[in-house]
Amino acid sequence: MQTIYDLNMKMMEDMLKEHGQKSYRAKQLFSWLYRKRVDDFALMSDLPAALTSKLKEEYSMAPLKELTRQVAHDGTTKYLFEMQDGSSVEAVLMHFHFGDSLCVSSQVGCNMGCTFCASGLLKKQRDLTAGEMVGEVLYVQKELDKTGGRVDNIVIMGTGEPFDNYDNVIRFCEIINSDLGLAIGARHITISTCGVVPRIYDFAAGHYQYNLAISLHAPNNELRAKLMPIDRAYDLNELMTALKQYSEGNHRRLTFEYILLHGVNDSDDCAVQLADLIRGMNAYVNLIPYNEVDENGYHTTDDKKALHFYDVLMKHGVKATLRSKHGDDIDAACGQLRAKHEMGKA
Ligand code: SAH
Q1: Which of 75, 140, 238, 336 has its CA 20 to 30 A from that of 10?
Q2: Which DSSP string corresponds to 128-160?
Q3: Cα-flanking dihedrals φ and ψ of residue 258, to 5°?
Q4: How many CA atoms lie within 13 A of 313 on its CB side?
Q5: What value does the CA radius of gyration of the chain take, rounded to a whole number of Å?
Q6: If you take atom 13 of ligand 1, which residue's CA is the nearest one?
Q7: Which helix (H) or strand (E) holds 221?
Q8: Centroid of ligand 1 to alpha carbon of 194 (angstroms)
């Protein structure tokens, strides 16, 4: 059965119209789901009883089921959720001085095959529906409701490639962004892609206000193709052309994510090449300390070297930040989501 969380406002209006209802009913329904956050149609007291019982027959309101929860020393919390078909995904809540951020998964497993990442150890089993991604946010928001907290920011950086599940991801963003619901501001939602070029053009054409982050990780094709198979499908030249069009056409600043891998992509030469690649663009580089994954033999660049890499970028005219680690003691940091649960079953 389809979940009601799968419907954006327009779809809800259309669905209710089919039930002979006026469009303001959609706003009421949306508000029950995402503002009052009730989980029973029967409690929606300003909707006609005949309608709520019909909705109950047609749509599920079942929340995701929490299988486990791990809390790291810094308060980062990793949830493992089970979906209706029995498969599971992780979401990670992080606390920052600027608010709480939830890292959401977009697929069960991932087919992108980045050699440094644990998430791809399990091949893609399926895409998440928009409703399932909404379910991740709603579950955590309901937990935060107990202490008056709020999910302020969403990063679609969990397991999966969001631009390999484009339509569902965009609809998910619309649902959580709607000011009649959770009202998470578009500029507080970040989609991260490894570089699926055709979808970057789609995203540019949509003129969305969500932030776009690009997992770059190497400044030339030779190295990037070794780390990220996607580079063989869409090389750096094609990627940068698409990104320039998006950034200039939409007046949006881009974030380039760059993991520092000891002895692989952290040389001065790489820093200079990276600066040459993106200088002049409305963009900055987010340098990410690598979280080691047992299976693949890559190592973290030490702090001193990371700072030096940062300095070289800045000296060559490119803005950068050094990301702090969150939740690494519970394997909840970037690239460590691996659905151990799923793999245990396989
Ligand atoms: N598929 C999307 C989103 C998921 S990955 C993408 O590639 O952007 C989110 C970020 O974590 C990406 O930049 C990814 O390259 C990075 N990442 C993957 N494994 C990592 C690891 N072990 N340590 C640090 N970052 C990692």
Answers
A1: 140
A2: PPHHHHHHHHHHHHHHHHTTT--EEEEEE-SSS
A3: -140, 105
A4: 27
A5: 21
A6: 215
A7: helix 221-227
A8: 8
